[in-house]
Design brief:
The complex is a heterodimer of chains A (79) and B (735). By secondary structure, chain A is an alpha+beta fold. Chain A has helices spanning 16-30, 52-67, and strands at 2-9, 40-46, 73-78. Chain B is an alpha+beta fold. Chain B is built from 25 helices and 28 strands. The longest helix of chain B is centred in the first third of the chain and has 24 residues, at 137-160. The chains are: A alpha+beta (79), B alpha+beta (735).
Chain lengths: 79, 735
């Protein structure tokens, strides 16, 4: 089974990386269209399990302790 | 107002405060005004608990250009140049999010320096953590905090191109729930080109520059004035994220602006953001301000006047410019890719008038808000523990072998090399660093503009401050000065960062009051005024306060950058001399802590004349090129000072000294130093010390493959393995 974890900055938290990309897009001529960029990351976990419910509990623990910095980041888990 | 109790509580205002607000405004405040009062009257902005004790700090000397009250202090360093410096805490944010908390702490102190018109040229930091040894959750968490804080400091300082050239780090369980992250920065500018945070001149425009405003750190100043409880650990969104690249642009844009004639005053937006910067700028001159908050560049949609006034978004400045220069100022910031907007103007009303799309949303008199903050005279009480521990001496403990004691002490985290930390910092960028981290005692940079060198050292022994807050704080001033003097520089002025527990606890207030007295006394006697500083209270978690920690940074000047004295042994065969008296001082010593796990005892009488004589001796002997190296003797005594010298210089020492008690090789008597001399200069050096009234004895000779001192001995290879590997092994055990 495969779990897809998306980690992204909480709303309202400054994203310097996104800001830099937005700036670069602007200098390439996309500025009219692009109003802002937010950068996140996606982690794909290969799991040895068939039980989505119990796996989800474990993946949540992983997010809380390692995969996400929950002080400034939120996350979603998809199977 | 509806739910008044709840609104006041969430803004940490009391009903007395509210009555005072009603009196000031002559009507009920709205929410924006409540928010502004809350920020301006927070401990962080108003110094309401501490002001009473800070008044009376010596702040003047012929070389002091600007004392406390501005963004940073300024001293004259000759040749038309000035040094601008300050230290500030970022304790609470760093505990919640170590990387960003420490990074934005560095960002904040750098802005304080370049707001004054100076280019930052050196950073230091003073860090305190809890118990990092062990496998409990708290130990692993503390190691995580160390890694995060160091990473954050390095990241921001390195990106900005400012070298981090030194600092100190120590560990004690009193910091388990509240780490301390104190960042120091020093900048250089011409002594007649200093900019102040003032707004004046009716009709002059108020210009906002830097990053856009988001919802970051809403109410940060209020948060940092609050103790942590289990509940507040979810106070998460108040953490700001730093953007050093933007700050670098802001630095360059500001320095470019300062070359023009457009600026009346400039203030950085730190804690309490637009609120404190605007009130401070107008408050200093008695002017009024009118600002259109809808013109503030916003990062997010739907932001309210309340949020604009209280946001703590980083990398922003407020400028009061001259009429007609608006376009020129904005052009400079746009060139550097930064936002800039005219958001208001100076008035003669003495009031802060805020508008939101043409509607007035706040109208407050400025002077009462910034100056009539409640000044508290909090109760003080001598802590009970002091009398319980003051009579303890080394004889209260089991006798142990000196060799056994030495082995424990030399591997203590407070003693060993911290290269794991400072190797993450760029200490050489700008290529002016003469004495880099790890070279013992003060850090030194050269000033290309005037051929001189600046020495600086951050010191505080929290154990001394715990057993005797008055003398402990005085000793922090003395030790930082001594370290500076060891490089041949003359100590000139200090900045302080006073970290204490909860001021509502009378025992903490007592510690605070006595520490302030100690700083006052030492700075007066040593003629090193306080030119800037910061107070951090409420460093308490679940009722446990940190040890009183008044961190001091002394800055000193060496007239010749060619004659900076090192703290490393230079030549085999040269002799080592011990200067100063060994009196058997073990109060708060490393000997008792490392061997018996206690912080106890009392501190003996402080002899400021001896201290000044020691400084004078090293400075004068160095000017005559009589010394090869100098190192102060402090924590761990002669034995630990020699161990550090041997390990870092890769040289052995054979030393023998007659003491009235065998354990006195670990004694921590103040006002002592070890100096290296050639046999040719020895007599002249001894004569010089004696002329200054200092005791001086031959300690030993450099050479061999081991450290030998009386009854202790360790091969150099073993000593170096302990000295250089212990810290990395501790911190990397989880990786």
């Amino acid at each position: 089974m495969r779990a897809v974890v998306n980690v992204y900055l909480k709303e309202g938290v400054l994203d310097p990386q996104g800001k830099a990309i937005a700036h670069a897009l602007d200098s390439l001529g996309f500025g009219e269209l692009v109003k802002g960029v937010r950068v996140g990351k996606q982690m794909v976990l290969e799991l040895d399990s068939n039980d989505e419910a119990s796996a989800k509990v474990e993946v949540e623990k992983m997010c809380e302790t390692l995969l996400a910095n929950t002080v400034i980041e939120d996350y979603t888990i998809e199977f | 107002m509806e739910n008044l109790d709840k609104v006041l509580k969430s803004h940490k205002l009391s009903h007395e405060d509210y009555a005072h607000i009603l009196e000031i405004l002559g009507r009920e405040p709205n929410l924006v005004e409540i928010g502004i009062f809350s920020a301006m009257w927070s401990e962080h902005c108003s110094y309401k608990s501490s002001k009473k004790y800070l008044n009376g700090f010596p702040t003047t000397a012929p070389w002091v250009i600007q004392g406390p009250g501005e963004n940073a202090g300024v001293i004259d360093i000759g040749g038309g140049m000035a040094a601008v410096f300050k230290m500030e805490s970022h304790n609470h944010p760093s505990f919640i999010e170590p990387f960003q908390g420490a990074a934005t702490g560095v960002g904040g102190i750098l802005r304080d320096i370049f707001t004054m018109g100076a280019r930052p040229v050196a950073n230091l930091n003073a860090l305190r953590f809890g118990d990092v040894y062990g496998n409990e959750t708290i130990n692993r968490y503390q190691r995580h905090l160390v890694r995060g804080v160091v990473d954050g400091i390095g990241s921001y300082g390195n990106c900005m191109g400012v070298p981090t050239i030194g600092g100190e780090i120590s560990f004690d369980s009193s910091y388990n729930g509240n780490i301390l992250v104190n960042a120091f920065s020093l900048g250089i500018c011409k002594s007649d080109e200093i900019f102040l945070g003032v707004a004046k001149g009716i009709g002059n425009p108020v210009i906002y520059v830097g990053s856009k405003t988001g919802r970051d750190g809403l109410g940060g100043a209020v948060m940092s004035s609050d103790s942590f409880t289990q509940e507040s650990k979810s106070l998460r969104p108040t953490v700001q994220v730093g953007d050093p690249f933007t700050e670098k642009l802001l630095l360059e844009a500001c320095l470019e602006l300062f070359q023009t004639d457009h600026v009346v005053g400039i203030q950085d937006m730190g804690a309490a953001g637009l609120t404190s910067s605007s009130f401070e700028m107008a408050g200093k001159t008695g002017a009024g301000l009118k600002m259109d908050l809808d013109k503030v560049p916003a990062r997010e949609e739907g932001m309210t006047p309340y949020e604009f006034m209280l946001s703590e978004s980083q990398e922003r400045m407020l400028i009061c410019a001259k009429i007609g220069s608006e376009d020129a100022v904005i052009a400079i910031f746009q060139k550097w890719g930064l936002d800039a907007a005219v958001i208001g103007e100076v008035t003669d009303t003495g009031r802060m008038e805020l508008y939101w799309h043409g509607q007035k949303c706040a109208d407050m008199p400025i002077a009462p808000v910034s100056e009539e903050a409640p000044i508290l005279d909090r109760p003080t009480a001598k802590p009970a523990y002091i009398d319980q521990i003051k009579d303890k001496t080394i004889d209260s403990y089991d006798t142990i072998d000196n060799q056994e004691a030495f082995e424990k002490m030399v591997s203590s985290l407070e003693v060993v090399d911290k290269s794991w930390v400072y190797q993450q910092y760029d200490s050489m960028v700008q290529t002016n660093t003469i004495k880099a981290p790890g070279s013992l005692d003060a850090s030194v940079i050269r000033i290309k503009e005037n051929g001189k060198a600046l020495a600086m050292s951050s010191d505080c022994n929290p154990r001394y401050c715990y057993i005797d807050p008055h003398k402990g704080a005085a000793l922090a001033v003395m030790e930082s000065g001594r370290n500076v003097a060891m490089s041949g520089a003359r100590p000139l002025a200090i900045t302080d960062c006073l970290n204490f527990g909860n001021p509502q606890n009378p025992e903490v207030m007592w510690q605070f009051a006595h520490s302030c007295e100690g700083i006052k006394e030492a700075c007066t006697k040593l003629n090193t005024p306080v030119v800037s500083g910061n107070v951090s209270l409420y460093n308490e978690t679940d009722g446990t306060s940190v040890y009183p920690t008044p961190a001091i940074v002394m800055v000193g000047l060496n007239d010749s950058q060619e004659s900076v004295l090192q703290s490393q042994l230079t030549q085999e065969g040269n002799e080592l001399l011990l200067v100063g008296a060994t009196k058997g001082e073990f109060g708060g010593s490393l000997y008792i802590k490392a061997n018996f796990g206690e912080t106890a005892g009392a501190i003996g009488a402080i002899d400021y004349d001896a201290e000044l004589a020691l400084w004078e001796f090293v400075i004068q002997a160095n000017q005559k090129a009589l010394l090869e190296c100098a190192k102060d003797v402090s924590m761990g005594g002669i034995a630990i000072a020699l161990a550090k010298l041997c390990a870092t210089s890769n040289k052995g020492v054979d030393a023998q000294i007659e003491l009235s008690e065998r354990r006195y090789i670990f004694d921590e008597s103040q006002s002592r130093a070890i100096v290296e001399v050639t046999s040719q200069n020895k007599e002249a050096v001894i004569a010089m010390a004696k002329a200054l009234g200092l005791e001086i004895v031959t300690l030993g000779t450099i050479g061999g493959d081991r450290l030998k001192l009386n009854d202790i001995e360790m091969p150099l290879t073993q000593l170096q393995a302990i000295y250089f590997d212990t810290f990395a092994q501790m911190i990397e055990q989880d990786l």
